[in-house]
Amino acid sequence: MSSITEKIYNPYWVAMAVSLAAFMEVLDTTITNVSLSHIAGTLGASQDESTWVLTSYLVANGIVLPLSGWLSGVMGRKRFFMTCIAAFTAASFLCGMANSLPMLIIFRLIQGLAGGGLQPTQQAIIVDAFPPEKRGAAFGLTGITMIVAPILGPTLGGFITDNFSWRWIFYMNVPVGILALFLVSRMVVDPLHAKAKGLLSIDYIGLSLIALGLGVLQIMLDKGQQEDWFASNFIIMCATISAACLIAAVIWLLNQEDPVIDLRLLARPNFSLACIMIFFMGFALYGSSTLLPLLLQSEFGYNATLAGLVLSPGGLAVIFLMPISGRVVNKIQARYLIAIGMFLLSIGLWYTKHVTPQTNYNIFVMMRISQVMGLPFLFIPISTLAFMGIPKEKSSKASAIYALSRNIGGSIGIAVLISFMSRHAQMQQSYMAAKLAPESPQYRALLSHYTNVFFSHGQNIIAAGQSAMGRIYHDLLQQSTIAAYRDTFTMMSAVTLALALIALQMPKNNPRKPSSADAAAAAH
After folding, report:
1. How far apart are CA 129 and CA 166, in angstroms?
2. d(CA 407, CA 25)
3. For residue 211, what are the CA distances in angstroms to 64, 133, 208, 422?
4. Which element (helix H / strand E) includes 97?
5. Nearest 5°: phi and psi at 158?
6. Which residues are within 8 A (CB) of 26 and not within 5 positions of it... i.e. 6 or more apart?
7. DSSP code at position 437
8. How many CB atoms sit inside 10 A of residue 191's CB?
9. Which site among 96, 102, 230, 250 is 20 to 30 Å from 16 CA-CA?
10. Other beta carbons less than 10 A from residue 15's beta carbon
């Protein structure tokens, strides 16, 4: 029966089926970002309380991600994947039905727990479905899922929220989930090594340490800027608990014969370096996808839909470039493509740092396209290098670590970049204010100019002077904030440029024919 199924369904169709489910899940990591104020208003919650709609999902998602390889082994990969799709779809429906914030948070937790198993399991299925020499094209489909979904999330979320209701952000998952469940049930077949092994034993200690360590880490990252980081006893407590649990987890897992998370895979240079690179790709992707809409909405007055539309053409550019990257990965060494991708990303971020108060919509679109043009030349080569030589029986656990690296990179990227931008806004404000001392010629000239403008619009001279000072203060805040965003993009550009140079030192791979290790894995 399985052999017949495998002959009927082309691996590319299998890849599309599993990618549909993963796309739905990754989309939900960013689709609610622009809808929090609407959710808070409908459910009678404060803006701060509504952020738990995001945090609860990310915490639950981060806990399950590294455990997905072990859970696949316990339940069987296909059964685990289908269970995740079904639970995610049901939880999405319940999120849309929620009539209170606590109810919505509980359903988002369930949604995050179910969704955490979709990304790594999708990649493990694709790794097994294709021979090593064709994985580049296969990872192109995975890349569209992992890169385009978080880019389109704010756009789609803003459009749905502005034109319908935030509840449809969750309801739309239901038909997609049902279709994905049907396709996976028909097309996906577990190879022998991915069959259910049963619950022989439960590593309660390993599971507890990982769940607590990663869960508290995500809470710390999400609340850090709001709580002023280590000036807060709450953040210090979170950091201590997370560090202690994760260090203990590493020591414990390395001493287990069949660990929940196989950290020994990181002893492979190609895999560990690929995890580092995908970490920073997540850092740049999720960080820039968060910063740019914030800038547009806070300083340029864009609504949620328009801010999202700035990101959409970048997603289309990624879709166009992904197949090209999938083809050249079989002809050029992965480390060279990774270096090219990081260099293009650095150039795009450097271009974005030139934003000014006069920057218009079209320029912002071009800036976003320049930011993401390097991503297709990162995801596919990094994935190809990561799974080079990984035995097929280890593919699920390798995918779990790999997906966790990207997601943690995204979470840390958002936290670090927003904190960096906020602190630099204060620095820039102090720097600019020093240049606008009341006795300075620049301040007097500016005050005189604005006073004349408001006076010419009918205000008396006293009111015009007060309005002029208010306008100068407004301009000071806007320009200092924009300057802080420029500083942040400059910093990201420098980091990615350094990574482009580091990528050249990554292990070689033979793009024209699979290595002996890959051949052995393919024949497994």
Report:
1. 37
2. 13
3. 8, 36, 5, 30
4. helix 77-97
5. -65, -45
6. 119, 145, 146, 149, 150, 153
7. -
8. 17
9. 96
10. 24
So what's the pLDDT on residue 91?
Answer: 93
Q: What would the two tokens of residue 461 be?
A: 């001279």
Token pair in block for residue 123: 């990649």
DSSP class per residue in 133-191: GGHHHHHHHHHIIIIIHHHHHHHHHHHHHHHS-THHHHHTHHHHHHHHHHHHHHH----
- Tokens matching residue 223: 């609340």
- Helix/strand/coil for 232: coil
Q: What is the model's pLDDT at position 292?
A: 83
Helices 68-75 and 77-97 pack at an angle, to 10 degrees, of 120
Q: Between helices 269-299 and 304-328, what is the axis angle to 10°? A: 150
pTM here? 0.75
Question: Phi and psi for 3 in degrees, rounded to 5?
Answer: -65, -35
Residue 9 gets the label, from left (phi > 0), alpha (psi -120 to 50) or beta, of beta
Q: What's the rounded Cα separation, in Å, for the pair 269 and 289?
A: 30
* CA distance linking residue 402 with residue 347, whole number of Å: 26
Measured from the Cβ of residue 450, the count of other Cβ atoms closer than 10 Å reads 19
pLDDT mean values, one per 10 residues, the chain (524 residues): 49 84 80 71 68 74 79 83 93 90 88 86 82 72 73 77 83 90 86 68 79 84 79 89 92 83 86 89 82 82 78 80 78 87 91 87 90 85 83 80 84 83 84 71 72 74 75 77 90 92 81 44 35
Report the amino acid identity of residue 186.
R
Q: How far is CA 243 from the centre of its chain?
A: 22
Give dist(CA 194, CA 120) in Å, integer.
Answer: 14
Q: How far apart are CA 39 and CA 42, in angstroms?
A: 5
Q: Are 138 and 13 in contact (CB under 8 A)?
A: no
Residue 11, CA distances (Å) to 118, 213, 327, 330, 402 in order: 18, 37, 17, 18, 22
Read off the amino acid at residue 129. A
Do 146 and 123 contact (CB within 8 A), yes or no? Answer: no
Q: Is the dihedral angle over the CA atoms 496, 54, 31, 309 positive or is it negative?
A: negative
Q: Round to whole Å and give the CA distance between 479 and 357.
A: 7
